[in-house]
Amino acid sequence: MKEAIRITLIYIIVAALWIFFSDSALALLNLDIQTVVRISQYKGFLYVQVTGIMLFFLIKKEMTEKNEVIVEQKTTLQQKEEVMRELHHRIKNNLQNIISIIHLETGEYGLTEVTTERILNKLYALSAIHDLVYTFAGFSHISLRQVLLNFFSYRLIPVQPEQLHISDAVQYSLEEMVPLALSFNELFEELTHFPHSYRFTITAKQKDTIDTLIYSPEYAMLNIDQKALSLYLTGSGASSTVIKQDGAVLIRFSFPAG
């Protein structure tokens, strides 16, 4: 409504000014009546052309602005729909992680005080891992090196630069990173039983393989739960392999190439 009033007022003002000044100029010429009539006709044709062009550009400008607003609103609506779908997907994945944790801990002994405590510890770990992962700007390209550095800081595990042979190009999506972080949480939860008798290196030069090599005089006592690691990785496309070597345990996380 405001735009229509504005265009109408502009048209009225231009028309009034045109009539006043053009007729005043014509009166000053002292021409005969036939010449005045002919010039008035030309003046009228010119007025129609000028005002027509003016109205065209005014209306075009208003329509362009309205179309830009419509496009912006459609874009915002699409973004909101994408966020809602993304939120639904992530809530579903988080619930699946929680269900997997409960099944893992209660499958053998049922819900005891010990298993309840272990479930709570894993849920706290899951919450902390999400706090780490969600600090990144994008959900599609999350740096493995940065997440691990944050993870070890959260677990109060001292890490030397030479222990992480990880290329900066090794990045994962959120769907891949959360199960990986949960797997590392499970792995280092077991290592807390040997606080001073192990050292480790993590190597990941490409996205499809992550090698975690743990050296320990008590490596034979390390009980790396292959079932737990595999359960966390379900749905992410990754798999894990635990290989015991002389004085060390190699845990390899593998992703499909590409």
SSE layout and pairings?
Layout: H1 2-27, H2 33-106, H3 113-133, E1 142-143, H4 144-154, E2 164-166, E3 171-172, H5 174-191, E4 199-204, E5 209-215, H6 226-233, E6 239-245, E7 248-254
Parallel strand pairs: 2-4
Antiparallel strand pairs: 1-3, 4-5, 5-7, 6-7
Descriptive notes:
The strands form two sheets. Strands 2-4-5-7-6 form a five-stranded mixed beta sheet, with helices on one face. The chain has a two-stranded antiparallel sheet with strand order 1-3. It is an alpha+beta fold and 258 residues long. It has helices spanning 2-27, 33-106, 113-133, 144-154, 174-191, 226-233; strands at residues 142-143, 164-166, 171-172, 199-204, 209-215, 239-245, 248-254. The mean pLDDT is 76. A hairpin with a 2-residue loop joins strand 6 and strand 7. 16% of the residues are buried.
Which strand order does the major sheet show? 2-4-5-7-6
Instruction: Bin the strand percentage.
Output: 5-15%
Helix share of residues? 55-70%
Provide the low-confidence segments as ranges: none
Number of strands: 7
Q: What would you call the quaternary organization?
A: single chain
Largest sheet: 5 strands, mixed
Q: Roughly how many Å apart are the termini?
A: 56 Å
Fold-level CATH name of the largest domain: Heat Shock Protein 90
Number of domains: 2
Radius of gyration: 36 Å
Mean pLDDT: 76
Structural class: alpha+beta
CATH class of the largest domain: Alpha Beta
Output the number of helix runs.
6
CATH architecture of the largest domain: 2-Layer Sandwich
Shape: rod-shaped
Give the H and E element order: HHHEHEEHEEHEE
